[in-house]
Design goal:
Layout: E1 12-20, E2 23-33, E3 39-46, H1 53-61, H2 63-73, E4 76-83, H3 113-120, H4 133-140, E5 159-165, H5 185-188, H6 196-204, E6 213-219, H7 234-242, E7 247-249, H8 256-266, E8 272-274, E9 285-288, E10 291-293, E11 301-304, E12 309-312, E13 323-329
Parallel strand pairs: 3-4, 3-5, 5-6, 6-7
Antiparallel strand pairs: 1-2, 2-13, 8-12, 9-10, 9-13, 11-12
Length: 343
């Protein structure tokens, strides 16, 4: 069970097996608890290439929609900002500070943390047009920066939430494209980029204490027509999908909804829960505090077959402190054997 996707305790209960077309399918119950966290470290990774001025301003303008959810729960939050530019020695994973005065960690102790973030997140548009946002995040959260220039940001036991904002795809190449200054190389030589499996594994290693990791993305969708030249951000979206985060479109004129959703998730109100095994979708039954919840893409739940994730939508999102019980039959070929998961 990936506790970075679902914060809480997971109990697997073997209910029984039954034949289906001569194949015995195992039934399981996963149990989750919706609990708020006490501490959360939020890293915003913001594209600072020439096309991003409007998007930076929109994130700044709608930050109140994000922070209100953290304020309501009384969370102890750290907020930091890095850029997607890993070519500049002044950036390259370093937390950006107000007026260039060094790293700034925004926390509830500041008199005007909303205003500070709104200024901080508008990082300018003079950065590299090879946006290596995933690598920038990993540098920011790893040695030597995390105990040096960025010291104090990442706390043991705190939830880590990384939010990417970019109108380009990630170009984490780690030198593979050296000597090719054309930004199109990021798209013409995709096979030269660091694999997403490697990057996902490196993210998982950031929190060896087992605390939760979320990755979310406001990036280009698959189809970016009429979107001012944005490119699909499929590498950022893959990271978000792998960690049960939230995806929003950089093409939207109003970021209010996505900023609110991000704030809800970061505040400890989870909307996604990853099952232990792949489920046969039509056998899934979901209960929240013993009340049956119907599948519905507006005010119910939906199932992601690829990532084994049950997502709650609209009014069906479980409240803080709720118990979520999910019963399902395990899909054939999952590797589960009779007796897995206890009694």
């Amino acid at each position: 069970m990936n506790l970075r996707v679902c914060f809480g305790v997971v109990v697997l209960v073997l209910v029984g097996c039954k034949p289906d077309n001569e194949i015995a399918r195992q039934s399981h119950q996963d149990v989750f608890y919706q609990e708020p966290t006490d501490e959360v470290d939020i890293l915003w990774v913001v594209d600072n290439s020439p096309s991003m001025a409007d998007e930076q301003a929109e994130v700044a303008d709608k930050f109140q929609s994000f922070i209100v959810n953290l304020e309501e729960t009384g969370l102890d939050f750290h907020v930091g900002v890095v850029t997607t530019d890993t070519d500049s020695t002044d950036e390259n994973g370093k937390l950006q500070g107000l007026d260039g005065e060094g790293p700034t960690i925004i926390s509830p102790s500041l008199d005007d943390y909303v205003g500070d973030f709104q200024e901080l997140v508008q990082v300018g548009v003079d950065g590299s047009d090879k946006e290596r946002g995933i690598d920038a995040a990993l540098k920011a959260l790893s040695e030597p920066l995390i105990s040096g220039y960025n010291e104090g940001f990442l706390r043991e036991g705190a939830t880590l939430s990384v939010i990417f904002v970019s109108d380009e795809n990630d170009c984490t190449d780690r030198g593979a494209l050296a000597g090719n200054d054309d930004a199109s190389a990021c798209y013409d030589n995709v096979d030269a980029l660091v694999s997403m499996k490697t990057l996902v594994d490196e993210f998982r290693e950031l929190k060896e204490d087992g605390s939760r990791i979320l990755a979310s993305a406001i990036v280009g969708p698959d189809i970016v027509e009429n979107c001012d030249g944005a490119k699909p951000g499929f590498r950022y979206r893959a990271l978000a999908e792998g960690f049960g985060g939230i995806e929003g479109s950089i093409c939207n004129n109003d970021f209010s909804e996505i900023m609110n959703e991000l704030g809800l998730q970061v505040s400890g109100v989870l909307t996604t829960f990853q099952l232990t095994y792949p489920a046969v979708e039509d056998t899934i039954e979901v209960f929240v505090d013993d009340e049956l919840v119907a599948p519905d893409d507006e005010n119910g739940w939906i199932y992601d077959e690829q990532y084994w994730i049950v997502s709650f939508e609209g009014d069906a999102v479980p409240a803080r402190g709720a118990q979520i019980d999910i019963y399902y039959e395990v899909a054939a070929g999952s590797g589960a054997t009779q007796g897995d998961g206890g009694t």
